[in-house]
């Protein structure tokens, strides 16, 4: 049985600079796998590389989804294979309403050619329900996505899309930064919901704060592009107490 | 969405219409523009003498006026080789589509015009080459006293009414191609809305050029009497053919006291058409003229919707969306001339340049002394999708009234790599992501279009960008 997501000895260059230097990682359905590490350790690079962002060059190693390599696929092909990335800093999309984006994205998943006409009319209800779960009003469906959104609203809108688009692998890049404590609780409950529905979650986070609300099954610590430590939820607590360097040395 | 979508063209005109199918002409006048050519056209049309003389005066002006030296593409046009008048094999405009020759009827059917007519329009006038071939107005318009006629018929049946306005809004002396238009005009529609009559279902005129080396000079005249309301839509298209054809149309609007005229153009000529357009309106006291232009097709387009705000409190808006995709040029801009106090105008220009396309905005806001408290706001937004494409903005403000307020905003945007990647991560291809962002760029002006036409425009843009051979 192949793993849902398997990262093998991944080396990645960004702008000619080696950022990931041999990362291994597996993710199973229904698992929350936290990836922690200080700034610049390669956490976001890992997320972007899995999603296929141009400029993130795999020079060695492989990324497999259900046993198939995805490193030669376009970003949209990876998305349609079930990879979803919740962005740390999503760009504003002037004029593009959240509902238009969701309609286009769902239509693509249903193999419908038109991007503007909802092939599944239930999608609007689903979107409004998702928004409600993340604590955003239904009017956000008609807002231009991420235009004038606060840091917290951005995070909530990203997580809401994960609920609507029904991916297999959910990568959340620092979904708790910029959120107040209520926001962190809400995001944690969404992560649990996604996990309980069988999705594999790669949870990238700088601080252990979020992990107090959602217990990870595994924790990987990245330092300077390498796996510095790996363990269960206790590792997150240790980092909280001692800091990254001490944990890595141990 | 469902119903509108099923009756709207899903492809570009070039594809829908394909290559021009041969149609026979009953009469064709080709070659050098002379007095005798104009006399012939006038004779064929059985025109009153005043119109014949008006044409001849315009011809003299055409010969005298200089060729504007800033107009690109003029050198491509050899007027001596064009057919200036082509009458298709339809004697009189018919009132049912079945009466049209099959090969002509098929063009309009492919474009979905008959369905649009049935669903939306209170009157439709359809021109093929130089003549109106189909013309039908719903009964309630006539009951309310609205006159909508092919231009030639209006000249014959309502000479006094037509004479009062024809070329009074846009005189042939304005420039060389205005003079050429008046000398050779043929086809187009005349609309008169009586006092206080409000028609909310739009009327439409649709123009088709079906062959190479043809010149089309339709003339549209809309007169809205006091307190009336009318929405006029014009559409145009052409199949593909070898070489080029030339369009030099004219629109005149006269909006009497407290009337409202909305004028919407969806220009979707094939890439073989060089398109000159002369559009002008006069707004009297308290009247309003709103222009909307979706400038999608053609090889080169020159169009400058203009309003003369002549009466106190008159207002006008002009929204132009211009797309230059590929080695094509869109030169346009709106003009607002404030001649009276408390007049207001608003200009919005949105251009999208891609694949080497060139967009030019050339606008004018003029406020004369005494037009107290006149206000005007100009907004130009250019979206440039790659390094080979260009957008120029030449706004001109001439403000001689100290109490006037004229403001201008111009922005140039590009689509960011982060935006494209974000949308690709949601499952869209780069092209689909681009088309979604382009539609986002146009989102606020779409709201001003009737639903069915916004759908057409959306669909055209979706298709145009679905085909981009890689952006950036």
Question: What tags apply to this protein structure?
Answer:
A: 250 residues, alpha/beta, Rossmann fold, 6-stranded mixed β-sheet, 10 strands, 34% helix, 26% strand, B: 472 residues, 10-stranded mixed β-sheet, 26% helix, globular
Strand content of chain A: 25-35%
Tally of extended strands of chain B?
Answer: 24
Low-confidence stretches of chain B: 1-10, 468-472
Using the CA coordinates, give the radius of gyration of chain A. 18 Å
Structural class of chain B: alpha/beta
The pLDDT mean of chain B sits at: 92
What is the quaternary state of this protein? Answer: heterodimer
Can you tell me about this structure?
The complex is a heterodimer of chains A (250) and B (472). Chain A has 250 residues and is of the alpha/beta class. Helices cover 34% and strands 26% of the residues of chain A. Chain A is built from eight helices and ten strands. Chain A has helices at 43-51, 75-80, 98-110, 123-133, 151-165, 181-196, 233-242, 244-249; strands at 5-14, 17-27, 32-36, 56-65, 68-69, 83-86, 169-173, 200-205, 218-223, 226-231. In chain A, strands 6-7-8-3-9-10 form a six-stranded mixed β-sheet, with helices on both faces. In chain A, strand 4 (56-65) and strand 5 form a beta hairpin. Chain A is globular, with a radius of gyration of 18 Å. Chain A starts with a strand and ends with a helix. Chain B is of the alpha/beta class. Chain B has two domains: 2-303, no CATH class; 421-472, no CATH class. Helices cover 26% and strands 37% of the residues of chain B. Chain B has 13 helices and 24 strands. In chain B, the strands form three sheets. A ten-stranded mixed β-sheet of chain B has the order 4-3-7-10-12-14-17-20-22-24. Chain B has a six-stranded parallel β-barrel with strand order 13-15-18-21-19-16. The longest helix of chain B has 17 residues, at 430-446. Chain B starts with a helix and ends in a 6-residue tail after the last helix. Mean pLDDT of chain B is 92; it is low at 1-10 and 468-472. Classes of the chains: A alpha/beta (250), B alpha/beta (472). The interface between A and B is medium-sized, with 33 and 30 residues.
């Amino acid at each position: 049985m192949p793993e849902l997501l398997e990262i093998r000895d991944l080396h990645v260059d960004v702008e000619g600079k080696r950022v990931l230097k041999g990362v291994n990682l597996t993710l199973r359905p229904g698992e929350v796998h936290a990836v922690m590490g200080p700034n610049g350790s390669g956490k976001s690079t890992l997320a972007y590389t899995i999603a296929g962002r141009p400029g993130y060059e795999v020079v060695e190693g492989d990324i497999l989804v259900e046993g198939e390599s995805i490193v030669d696929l376009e970003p949209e092909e990876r998305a349609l294979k079930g990879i979803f990335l919740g962005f740390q800093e999503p760009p504003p999309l002037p004029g593009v309403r959240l509902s238009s984006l969701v309609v286009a994205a769902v239509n693509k998943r249903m193999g419908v050619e038109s991007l503007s006409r909802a092939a599944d009319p239930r999608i609007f209800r689903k979107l409004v329900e998702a928004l409600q779960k993340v604590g955003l009003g239904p009017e956000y469906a008609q807002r231009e996505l991420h235009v004038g959104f606060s840091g917290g609203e951005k995070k909530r809108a990203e997580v809401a899309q994960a609920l609507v688009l029904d991916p297999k692998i959910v990568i959340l890049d620092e979904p708790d930064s910029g959120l107040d404590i209520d926001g962190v609780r809400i995001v944690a409950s969404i992560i649990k919901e996604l996990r309980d529905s069988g999705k594999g979650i790669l949870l990238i986070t700088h601080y252990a704060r979020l992990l107090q609300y959602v217990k990870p099954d595994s924790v990987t610590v990245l330092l300077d592009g390498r796996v510095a430590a790996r363990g269960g939820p206790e590792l997150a607590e240790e980092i909280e107490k001692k800091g990254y360097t001490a944990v890595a040395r141990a | 969405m469902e119903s509108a979508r099923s009756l709207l063209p899903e492809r570009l005109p070039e594809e829908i219409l394909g290559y021009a199918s041969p149609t026979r002409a009953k009469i064709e006048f080709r070659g050098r523009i002379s007095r005798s050519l104009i006399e012939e056209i006038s004779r064929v049309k059985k025109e009153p003498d005043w119109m014949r003389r008006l044409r001849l005066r315009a011809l003299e002006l055409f010969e005298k006026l200089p060729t504007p030296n800033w107009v690109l593409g003029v050198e491509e046009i050899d007027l001596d080789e064009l057919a200036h008048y082509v009458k298709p094999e339809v004697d009189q405009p018919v009132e049912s589509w079945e009466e049209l020759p099959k090969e002509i009827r098929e063009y309009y059917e492919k474009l979905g015009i008959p369905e649009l007519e049935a669903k939306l329009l209170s009157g439709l006038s359809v021109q093929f080459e130089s003549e109106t071939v189909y013309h039908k107005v719903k009964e309630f318009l006539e009951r309310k006293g609205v006159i909508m006629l092919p231009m030639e018929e209006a000249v014959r049946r309502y000479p006094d009414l037509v004479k009062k306005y024809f070329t009074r809004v846009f005189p042939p002396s304005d420039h060389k191609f205005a003079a050429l238009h008046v000398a050779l005009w043929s086809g187009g529609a005349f609309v008169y809305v009586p006092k206080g009559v409000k028609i909310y279902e739009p009327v439409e005129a649709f123009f088709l050029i079906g062959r190479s080396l043809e010149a089309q000079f339709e003339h549209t005249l809309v007169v809205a009497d006091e307190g009336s309301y009318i929405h006029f839509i014009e559409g145009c298209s052409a199949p593909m053919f070898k070489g080029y054809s030339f369009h030099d149309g004219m629109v005149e609007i006269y909006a009497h006291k407290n009337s409202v005229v909305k004028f919407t153009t969806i220009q979707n000529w094939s890439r073989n058409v060089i398109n000159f357009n002369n559009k002008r309106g006069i707004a009297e006291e308290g009247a309003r003229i709103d222009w909307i232009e979706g400038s999608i097709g053609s090889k080169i387009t020159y169009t400058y919707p203009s309003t003369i705000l002549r009466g106190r409190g008159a207002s006008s808006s002009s929204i132009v969306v211009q797309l230059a995709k590929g080695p094509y040029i869109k030169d346009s801009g709106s003009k607002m001339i404030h001649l009276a106090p408390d007049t207001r105008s608003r200009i919005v220009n949105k251009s999208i340049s891609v694949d080497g396309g060139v967009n030019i905005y050339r606008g004018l806001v003029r406020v004369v002394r005494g037009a107290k408290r006149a206000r005007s706001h100009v907004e130009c937004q250019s979206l440039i999708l790659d390094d080979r494409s260009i957008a120029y903005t030449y706004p001109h403000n001439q403000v001689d009234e100290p109490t006037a307020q004229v403001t201008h905003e111009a922005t140039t945007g590009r689509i960011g790599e982060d935006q494209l990647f974000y949308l690709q991560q949601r499952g869209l291809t780069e092209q689909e992501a681009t088309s979604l962002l382009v539609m986002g760029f146009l989102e606020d002006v779409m709201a001003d279009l009737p639903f069915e036409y916004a759908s057409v425009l959306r669909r055209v843009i979706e298709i145009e960008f679905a085909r981009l051979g890689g952006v950036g």
